[in-house]
Amino acid sequence: WAACSIALAVLLVFYFFMLPGILKRQAVKLISQGNPEISVTVESAAPSLPAGIRLGNVEVKLKSGKSFEARKVDVQARLIRLLGGKLSLAVDAALYGGRMKGAITFLDYFSTSGPFAAHFMFEDIKAGDCKLLSFGRQLTGKLSGSVELAGDTAKALQADGGIELKLANGMLPLAPNSMGLELLAFEKLEADAVLGEGTLKIKRLELKDKAANGEFQGRIEIDPNAPENSRLQLQGNLTFSFDSGRPHTAVLIGTYANPA
Length: 260
Hints:
13 strands; 13-stranded antiparallel sheet; 57% strand; 2 helices
């Protein structure tokens, strides 16, 4: 019994005091591996049952200085996939007043690098609190949607995939004199897009509001090192209630930081 008690005490010490530090270092390495434009900090880490980790105050910062922060991130290994030799991680994060859930699967056997596939759903994210969406002109509103990605961990910011977004009760500040507007307010903004080869192809971007409605299509050339410099090429129609709903052709060009 004495030997069992000592062994149990050692195991508990390892589990609660040593393992969190190991998991914290591995989590940082996993997120940032092969991507020098990304830096990751994790304030705290603790093991969670049955086979997971809880990370506290996670910050992912891009080379440009813009960051993405999560108050809490729970990561659990999906045991069925693990039995088949592939690591798949379920993720549940609390961030910006909302929630993000999904999973990332590493496609090579017994590996946490190389090709991966990921899918995430998010809801009620306060866009106005997310620094990643602020480049001098802060997008606001409640953000929900889903993302499907496939790529390589060495070039995670260049992954391909599909995106569906819904933004409710928001506002987008524009450059002075853009389409005669400085603020584009909306009750609902919905977008469907395809990401591939560094380009976000906007299949549909629809804006609805009591004062104005619009629909756009086009593309955004992504700059992974400086997202604020991503080039906009969108064209569509806007209608205004004060103008009896007469359609106006609208073109949105420039950069994300300075649309025109």
